[in-house]
Specification:
Radius of gyration: 29 Å
Strand order of the largest sheet: 1-2-3-4
Largest sheet: 4 strands, antiparallel
Strand content: 5-15%
Order of helices and strands: HEHHHHHHEEEH
């Protein structure tokens, strides 16, 4: 056997291990980053609880979702939720629509019309929140103050108001000014539950936060997080419900998984306790025999 043919299998194994190590490290860094972000959010919510006279309350659950920067993505989110709710209704009430679905598919093949979805009320709600939070950060950041001034200038024009019917504010400003950075805000909806001093757990609440790049070169933190608004959680369900449902379902499945692991561990322990006397018997016999001949 040649040296090269002997080494090649080990090179293959080494390559696989190297790839595995790289993926593991990357995943570890991503998880650490996520934990860091969540810790920052945890601290922000704690500060929010203090401001709302809830010192001593515990945060018992927390999750967050990125807000859409474009109208197309927002519409996709809303449509996804509507379809998800429709499927849930069909499942709960056991509605059978196979014949209608078959007819619909045949009709689509004959008339391939692209489905367009508009949600004027929801879209207007998102613009109001977007404008409100823009005003909040404009007081703290000169760049966003300039964006706000641009908005106040263009909102007087008919063509901008028409454009705004089909765009979010940042998206419309970015298009009319040719400045893409205007539509680069990092806004997040943070949802959380608290427990009061009587151990009563609250319903879901929500706040909005915004992420900024840290311009301080001496700071170790790459980003700054700013609280921008207290939000009505129920008014956000039109775009987060399906994600919240999956999040809650995931928690239940994790609990079931932990319970199953605990049961299996208990069974293993019981089996071990049953066979332990049999395992220790030869050792005891050996000690007795040894004592006789010593």
């Amino acid at each position: 056997m040649s040296a090269s043919s002997f080494i090649s299998p080990f090179l293959g194994i080494g390559f696989v291990l190297l790839v595995f190590w790289y993926i593991s490290r990357k995943k570890s860094r991503e998880e650490t980053s996520k934990k860091g972000n969540k810790n920052d959010l945890w601290y922000l919510v704690k500060e929010y609880l203090k401001v709302t006279d809830r010192q001593g309350y515990r945060i018992v659950d927390l999750t967050f979702y990125s807000r859409a920067n474009t109208i197309s993505f927002l519409r996709e989110q809303i449509l996804e939720n509507k379809e998800f709710l429709e499927k849930r209704r069909e499942k709960l009430f056991n509605l059978k629509k196979k014949r209608l679905e078959r007819f619909g598919k045949k009709l689509q093949r004959k008339l391939p019309i692209k489905k367009v979805t508009y949600y004027p009320e929801h879209e207007d709600y998102h613009r109001k929140i977007e404008l409100y939070t823009l005003k909040v950060i404009a007081n703290k950041n000169s760049t966003y103050d300039e964006y706000l001034q641009e908005y106040e200038k263009y909102i007087q024009e008919d063509n901008f108001r028409e454009l705004l019917k089909q765009k979010l504010i940042g998206e419309a400003l970015s298009k009319i000014t040719k400045n893409k950075t205007i539509n680069s805000r990092n806004r997040f909806l943070v949802c959380f539950k608290t427990m009061n001093k009587s151990n009563v757990i609250s319903d879901w609440e929500a706040i909005e936060i915004e992420l900024f790049k840290n311009t301080n070169p001496n700071s170790k933190e790459k980003f700054k997080v700013l609280f921008t608004a207290s939000i009505n959680y129920e008014k956000e369900l039109h775009w987060i419900y399906s994600q919240q449902y999956k999040y809650e379902r995931g928690k239940v499945e994790r609990v079931k998984s932990l319970e199953l692991e605990a049961e299996q561990e208990e069974k293993r322990l019981k089996r071990w306790l049953k066979i332990q006397p049999l395992v220790s018997f030869p050792k005891e016999c050996f000690q007795k025999v040894k004592s006789k001949f010593s």
